[in-house]
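User: We ran a pulldown and think these components assemble together. Before we commit to crystallization trials, I'd like a predicted model of the whole complex to look at. Sequences follow.
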Amino acid sequence: MEKLLMKGNEAVGAAAIKAGCRHFFGYPITPQNEIPEYMAKELPPLGGTFVQAESEIAAINMVYGAAGAGARVMTSSSSPGIALKQEGISYIAASELPCVIVNMMRSSPGLGGIQPAQADYFMATRGGGNGDYYMPVYAPASIQETVELVMEAFEVADFYCTPVMILGDGMIGQMMESVEFPEPKKRNLPAKDWATVGTGGKRKPNIINSLRIEPDVLEPHIQKLLDKYEVIKKDETLYEKVNCEDADVIAVAYGTISRVVRNAIKKCEEEGIKLGLIRPITLWPFPFAAFEEISPNTKAFLSVEMSAGQMVDDVKIAANGRIPVEFYGRYGGNVPKPDEVVAKVKDILGGGK
Amino acid sequence: MSLVFEKTKGLTDVPFHYCPGCTHGIVHRLVAENLVELGVLGSTIGVAPVGCAVFAYNYFNCDMQEAAHGRAPAVATGIKRVHPDNVVFTYQGDGDLAAIGTAETVHAAVRGENITIIFINNAIYGMTGGQMAPTTLIGQKATTAPYGRQKEVQGSPIRVSEMLATLEGAAFIERVSVDSPGNVRKAKKAIKKAFECQIQKKGFSMVEVLSTCPTNWGMTPVDSLTWLEENMMPYYPLGNIRTPEED
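Assistant: Here's a predicted model for the assembly, 600 residues in total across the polymer chains.
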């Protein structure tokens, strides 16, 4: 297979097109601009459409319309822009429409900065907008994995009729790596017989809608969403475990920070410390199962994040009091270094083993 | 016995929820009749707003999407870009279109998005119970303008049609009213022209319809029609503001 050297953001666009996405609606924001720029160049010759919307809010509502019209559709943004999209994401989840949303996270809150961060974990994994809903959230750790997860995201979106988020820290969008584009893995997808394509005078109107004014109608609708989420939890949770057997400390890290932890694992080995890694690939559903078989002799879980401590809450739920949970994070655009992680591990172990 | 009037096939049999004397029902019928007469009902996709017409998706006998408040033109853009040969329209009130959805409306026109907007201007927020709208007239009372709208406090009402007509992408803009049988007939013609403009791929089209809200205006339906003629029409003059050059 041909190997290409590609920037993460461009690889997102290329993977989406390979997965059959022909409609993209976006708005400029650093550090994800190469995604809309790539789509603006590549989609028109393929007969697709790129629209630069007047705002992130408009872009996500164009996604709503296009998804409701039966298309494979994507939008992308970065943290403050994703915050603006939450209205539309909630409507899309409630209306059970498939789409892919990419968030190349920058440092926040507020306008924050344009350097990488992982401070949108809460917003991504807790629904983010109003109401009782969730969406699958994929956190790739390399450009190759980004390509594969973007393709998978479209299949999962269509399979479950749900928005799906690709949550990359800014480094995923900006760094270049060699990447190859395998054929997308196809699922047996249900027909989009609910889409608004015109009745042709042959059937009753299809209606895309999230409004249910009667509580006794709305409650079963929400229950239907919750039932779907249980299936997604059971069938779609992804994670990787490294070096966890008899580990002294097990780090939990996602995205590029998992690669920082891999370096820390080597450095710990040199000092006779066994550091393990649980890498969630889906952040929602969170891989609670990965924590179940961990030996009670493990001294601690250490959540390492490019945030002030967000995923650590899920690690605490996963540990459920059996094993202490520690946190190390850098934020505001700074990145945890392997030596800092090693120092934290030593600190946990009481200044060395 | 000969049939002299029949309900249009463009509407479903779901009973309207609108208040007595409200003009939404008339405008729904005009839109639906035109879609049938143009032979495009089966290829039409409508977008309902948030506001009094939120349940419009139950009334129009075509595929429908319900948009978030003000976002109907963005939703319609998404639909139209996927299905450029289908007829796509939005049906929006003044709060939806001229307040929270101003950006979506203006930029749909800027892009020359080939959709049709039916814009109901009744100078009030109806569904939420009579709050001030961007189109509420100076001196007109609303629950959030209990002393009447004052130019110095809330500014002057917005003339959406005139504003959009300054944009090159706006191909067809006309303001009509449904206060009298004659004006209802003119309104129907304008809505037909707007849809024809879209079918001929000439770009963005909008028909602004001056309408009444007896419930929130606190008037009888008949008094409401008189109030519309005496107060709204002078500020919101009827007529075509923009039409494709070839016509």
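Residues 191 and 207 of chain B are 6 Å apart (CA to CA). That may be worth checking against your pulldown data before setting up trials.

User: Thanks, that helps.
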